[in-house]
């Protein structure tokens, strides 16, 4: 019986389906989901949904109830016992907390608390839109804690809607960079590939989307079926040798968008391996 189970496991590991489950990981692309995509549900349920989409990375956001028998929200000020419970929840699901955001603490004390949380939870990227006046403090703490802060771009009139405003605050600090939200660039009338080129060497995380049309009021669609030119975006990511978290942020059909995220992930991986749909 033991021999049979061993052979079955070896066969599974050797199968193309298993081996290609996350082909993008070979390039250092940590494809996951922003738990905000499942904001109608507790974090514990969001993890189950993310897992069902074939993803093993998550970006948490602070306003989500934790659930799973754990009181409180995914706030970076949660107490030590709650942090341990959340880490156990992640371990049970086999999902890594790669990023946290989007957050914008207003003073140094809260930023320090955020970095302490990120360090304890193993967060790689803090995705944020800090007040410009606090950027020296943010940069100092990022170097001290050796944790990346990725500047996210909400659409205009957000301060960071254009790559130039991101470049103006990150300087040459190796722990500061861009969380490139390609959908929000399109909403702002920008070309995502051109934006990535402008930010070359500074893109350390991404919010991934595809949109129905080039309009501020448009909505998400399955990746590869909209106007964001996903093959060209991926080609530019490959050219730049991008490495880091990529969060699926699907803000449409909130009650049941899991099937569309799953289809998006499949398309993403097909484009990655074959170069096109």
Automatic annotation (TrEMBL):
Residues 49-269 form the Xylose isomerase-like TIM barrel domain. Residues 1-19 form the signal peptide. GO terms for molecular function: isomerase activity. Keywords: Isomerase, Signal. Transmembrane segments: none annotated. This is Sugar phosphate isomerase/epimerase.
